[in-house]
Amino acid sequence: MCTGCVQKEYPDRGNTCLESGSYLMNYRSCVSCQRRDFVLIRNKTTEDEDGEEIVTFDHVCKNCDHIIARHEYTFSVVDEYQEYTMLCMLCGKAEDSISVLPDDPRQSAPLF
């Protein structure tokens, strides 16, 4: 992918996992055409491997079709938690885990 198009490679996004869209704050401009315009999503695929959903696509320059970055997003259910991950040179890296129960056991306060 293209390191010249982004301000920072794989920025840490904490728990912000994007299944679609683009993190334009990290987009410098296209090194191919030198323009800063919208970023398109191309070649989007969704696979289901052993209960894990994997979404991949390319971030592409609107003007010259230069590939800026490859985006990978995963979703799975492990035990009683929904697990999300994202890895993309433009959008960054992130992980999140959310309980499928109404009250997350990790968030409960001790009684004593």
UniProtKB/TrEMBL annotation:
Belongs to the Churchill family. It comes from the Eukaryota. One of its GO terms (biological process) is fibroblast growth factor receptor signaling pathway. The lineage of its organism: Eukaryota, Metazoa, Chordata, Craniata, Vertebrata. Keywords: Activator, Developmental protein, Metal-binding, Transcription, Transcription regulation, Zinc. The keyword Zinc applies. It holds the Pfam family Churchill. GO terms for molecular function: zinc ion binding. Gene3D superfamilies: Transcription activator, Churchill (2.60.40.4240). The keyword Metal-binding applies. This is Protein Churchill.
